[in-house]
Amino acid sequence: MTVPFNGSISRTQRVSLCVYSGFCTGVERAVRLAEGYLRERPGQELYVTGDIVHNAGVMRRLTSIGLKRIEGDAPPVGKTVLVQAHGISPSVEEVLVKNHNRIINGTCPILKANFDRFRLAEEQGFRSFLFGDRAHPEVEAIQGLLRDVVVFRDLEELSGLRNRVLTTDKIALIAQSTKPVDEYRRSAKMLVEQLKPQQLFQMHFSICAATILREEEIKEKAPLFSTVFIVGGKHSANTKKLVLLAREQCPRVHWVEDVEEARGYLALIQKSDTILIGGGASTPLQDIKAIEALFL
């Protein structure tokens, strides 16, 4: 996959933003739903099932205008609840409905389509092998959706599942939407190499395009800059992967959450440095542009 970049940097182009920056469409939709509800109903509360997005700044801003995060095992009663962009399991939704809550579905439409395909595969008799992080809310939602799903976090863990692979007649490989696409392809290769002729295999390409495009852009551009700033929450899976990819390509990579954290690196930047700034799918574009302005 090629990103729109000509492979060179102008001598006057000291600071450059990644083309694929700002909220992905799913995050933008969830944030817009929250903002719209709270602006139209000043003084009212809106509950959310976890973090709408993995971005502390966004959550602080929304909390300041009335958003409340559901904590622990004590769901609200008779309130309005926004489902986070990552989705929730049917059992969690059932409890919310039982407690007479009004639900606004903020699940990313791309994830919802993925969930529908995963469920259809299970109805057709496939056991799902899920490439993902167990503690991630998207993975938790999928585990609650499917009756029979095997989660693995990396190739090493997948290699330890050989017996389960060989005793499964129909295998569906699925992935958390923010996992690295290269590792997902290697997972598919490992599975296929283990299969017996009579086993059926299907691979669902469920990694989001926003994830793929950002990763490819970082891999292409990072080697051409002396310094890279990746902007995003420390709990964001896709932001973490961008940082790791950038560090493979560039000797100086800084992971910052906002402009104030980036300001701490000002003294380290030389006039001769060239700076690339990118961000995860849960990072607002204005946060990235604020850091650009800091170094111009």
Write up what this structure looks like.
The chain has 296 residues and is α/β, with parallel strands linked by helices. The protein has 3 domains: 15-23 and 209-295, 3-Layer(aba) Sandwich (Cobalt-precorrin-4 Transmethylase, domain 1), CATH 3.40.1010; 25-104, Rossmann fold, CATH 3.40.50; 109-203, Cobalt-precorrin-4 Transmethylase, domain 1 (3-Layer(aba) Sandwich), CATH 3.40.1010. 42% of the residues lie in helices and 16% in strands. The protein is built from 12 helices and 12 strands. A 4-stranded parallel β-sheet has the order 1-12-10-11, sandwiched between helices. Strands 3-2-4-5 form a 4-stranded parallel β-sheet, with helices on both faces. Helix 9 (209-221) runs parallel beside helix 10.
Short description:
By secondary structure, the protein is α/β, with parallel strands linked by helices. The protein has 3 domains: about 100 residues, Cobalt-precorrin-4 Transmethylase, domain 1; about 80 residues, Rossmann fold (3-Layer(aba) Sandwich); about 100 residues, Cobalt-precorrin-4 Transmethylase, domain 1 (3-Layer(aba) Sandwich), CATH 3.40.1010.20.
